[in-house]
Design a protein that fits this description.
The chain has 652 residues and is α+β, with helices and mostly antiparallel strands. Helix content is 44%, strand content 13%. The strands form six sheets. The protein has a six-stranded mixed beta sheet with strand order 1-8-5-6-4-7. The protein has a four-stranded antiparallel beta sheet with strand order 9-10-14-15. The longest helix is centred in the last third of the chain and has 25 residues.
Length: 652
């Protein structure tokens, strides 16, 4: 790590981060302390979320060393909040945090203890700064709640790290602060990681090359090819071929040849252009059939993509921990532990050629190549949200970038990614087969996407990227790619087996609202696929959406006095459905027939299992629909649905 970057533990064996001989001063050009409930409660929650096995990055502090003290350029709100937090916890701090020319703020900081004890007779309340006083009050309230576990909190606080980053000498601080303030954000972990990996390279030209590839990959909008901009598309074509759609090379020397000698252009505009009356920014990525303009949105953000790529790198190069019993990467994809994850691989990783720590330069080169190649695969084979023209309604998409036109007039357009085999020769046969497989892949991946809504548990993306990358991407070069949907489906099958069939015992499938979402979504995929292969085509309109609430069709707590409670079978799988969270409060206590009539529009666009349950909710003879559902219909439905799952999961 650079000498300008220091790792600070909030608390540790030798005291806390304010136990220093260097003073932190908040300059006058910074705004006054302003954190309120939302930010302070989030700070407490972030600390409570810390795992016990590793350090946790919580932000960065940008400082400039001025006359023997640190002038805080960015991060003062968090720094002040941590100072207040330590005092609210009763941890003594040195008076090393001060505000320039803000007497009230400094007076309040020096009298925190009296404020906590409410010793108003000992302090001049007219000299108290309201913002800091409010922060103390909020933190004190959070730390005295009934469920607050001080011992656990202190253990987790000891794992918290802030990176103090010194700006180089002679930096124009006013300009730097203006830029940071305009961006409205702190230096992120991935910014620090970029600088760290670049520092492993000794040659400035190689650092520049690394930065260009990194910057292109870090923009998760659209396709990575479009982020390489140069005169006559020279760089783009050198990396991705004349059609802009070839796998990037696996050779550092080829990148040096492709990029280092070429000047990349920016996408900025001249002032004379900006002031023109008819000026508009051309921000579209390209077109699909019929000249429909499209834009694309990634399902994950860049820090998470870095973690996925690190796992791909570990798999490709067989990286293991030098301590055989230790894991080289965590299972959870935690963006707050990004630096920790890379530091562990670099410090403790070993390959067939030796320790990574002994060849950091090779690691930096190898990782940046892996990053670009993985991003290319991610763009081409992992679903995105696609938006047509100016529509706000996106749809799931699996497309590849192509090019039309000649030379400087080339433009990007998008067509379905290819999942065809060599024997499909005619254009009609090729198109029909590819469209069929593209749709299957979209449906399977979107089922996984809506099942795992947190980016921390999107392991399915890692597994698919590793399969695409292994053995120099052999699987995309032969007929194996036609089975890509099966690779994704096997991920779903493993999850359903492990988290449903292996949990439920003695033939009782009654997990209630704890039933994993993947069970419902994989079942819907099977029902959709069976329907597509059949004659009726009832579910051709079905799409996977974020239906994140597991509900009972026959309610747990019926509306008072209207129908009887079901005590012994209400949690059975046959009585469960998955719906959108925004309708669950109205949905929960109604009878099945009331739900069927009241939520008709939602049901017809909802889960396929829900549609089937609604169809089965009919009276039978003199038995009302609810009673018949509870006594017989739900069980037949459950057996049929479990039959689909057991067959697909090879469960006897």
């Amino acid at each position: 790590m650079s000498k300008l970057v220091t790792e600070l533990h909030i608390i540790g064996e030798n005291g806390n981060m304010f136990d220093t001989d260097m003073e932190y001063i908040i300059p006058l050009y910074q705004r006054a302390y302003a954190w309120e409930d939302k930010q302070l409660t989030q700070l407490i929650e972030d600390i409570n979320d810390v795992a016990e096995d590793s350090n946790y990055y919580i932000g960065s502090l940008i400082v400039s060393k001025q006359f023997g003290r640190y002038e805080v350029v960015d991060g003062q709100q968090r720094l002040t909040s941590l100072y207040l937090l330590l005092n609210c916890l009763g941890i003594k701090t040195k008076p090393t945090l001060t505000f320039a020319c803000r007497e009230k703020s400094n007076y309040t900081l020096r009298n925190i203890e009296e404020l906590l004890l409410e010793n108003r007779s000992k302090i001049d309340m007219d000299r108290i700064e309201p913002g800091i006083q409010r922060g103390i009050r909020i933190l004190s309230h959070e730390l005295t709640k009934d469920h607050f576990d001080r011992e656990s909190f202190m253990e987790k606080l000891a794992k918290i790290i802030v990176y103090r980053i010194e700006v180089p000498e002679n930096t124009d601080l006013n300009r730097y602060y203006e830029i940071m303030n305009t961006r409205g954000e702190q230096l992120e972990q991935h910014d620090i990681l970029k600088a760290t990996l670049m520092s492993y390279l000794s040659d400035d030209s190689e650092k520049g090359l690394f930065a260009k590839i990194w910057d292109a990959c870090s923009d998760m909008t659209g396709y990575v090819q479009m982020h390489f901009i140069s005169k006559n598309n020279a760089v783009r074509e050198a990396i991705f071929g004349s059609e802009w759609n070839s796998m990037p090379p696996n050779s550092w020397q080829k990148y040096k040849k492709a990029i280092s000698g070429t000047t990349q252009e920016t996408t900025g505009h001249k002032i004379c252009d900006l002031i023109e009356k008819n000026f508009k920014v051309e921000d579209d990525e390209g077109y699909v059939d019929g000249d429909v303009r499209v834009r694309f949105e990634s399902v994950i953000e860049f820090p998470y993509f870095l973690l996925h790529t690190l796992k791909v790198y570990v798999s490709l190069y067989g990286v293991t921990h030098e301590i055989a019993t230790s894991k080289i990467v965590d299972e959870l994809l935690d963006d707050k532990k990004l630096l920790d994850a890379f530091n562990r691989v670099v410090s403790c990783g070993i390959t067939d050629t030796g320790r990574i720590a002994d060849s950091k330069e090779d690691f930096a080169r190898g990782f940046i190549i892996c990053l670009l190649r993985t991003r290319y695969l991610f763009d081409k084979y992992i679903i995105k949200r696609e938006y047509a023209n100016d529509s706000a309604d996106g749809e799931w998409s699996l497309k590849s970038l192509h090019v039309s036109g000649q030379q400087s007039k080339k433009k990007a357009y998008y067509g379905n990614s290819e999942f065809t085999r060599s024997g499909e020769w005619t254009r009609t046969e090729w198109t029909r087969a590819n469209d069929w497989r593209t749709k299957t892949n979209i449906m399977m991946q979107s089922a996984l996407r809506v099942s795992y809504t947190s980016p921390k548990v999107m392991h399915w993306i890692t597994k698919l990227l590793i399969w695409l990358s292994e053995a120099d991407c052999k699987n995309i070069k032969n007929d194996a790619i036609t089975k890509f949907d099966k690779v994704a489906e096997n991920i779903a099958i493993d999850a359903v087996r492990e988290n449903f069939f292996q949990v439920c015992s003695n033939g009782v499938y009654a997990m209630g609202v704890n039933t994993p979402h993947i069970v419902f979504n994989y079942l819907d995929y099977l029902l959709w696929n069976d329907d597509r292969n059949g004659k009726k085509k009832k579910y051709s309109d079905f799409v996977f959406e974020f239906r994140n609430s597991v509900e009972h069709w026959y309610p747990q707590n019926p509306s008072e006095g209207t129908f009887e409670q079901w005590k012994d079978g209400v949690d059975q799988f046959g009585n469960l459905c998955i719906i959108q969270r925004n309708v669950n409060s109205k949905f929960s206590n109604m009878s099945p027939e009331a739900k069927k009539s009241t939520f008709k529009d939602m049901i017809v666009k909802g889960s396929i299992k829900l549609r089937i349950m609604s169809e089965l909710t009919e009276k039978n003879g003199d038995k009302p629909a609810s009673l018949y559902w509870k006594e017989r219909a739900y069980k037949a439905h459950e057996e049929e649905m479990l039959g689909h799952l057991k067959k697909a999961c090879n469960i006897e």
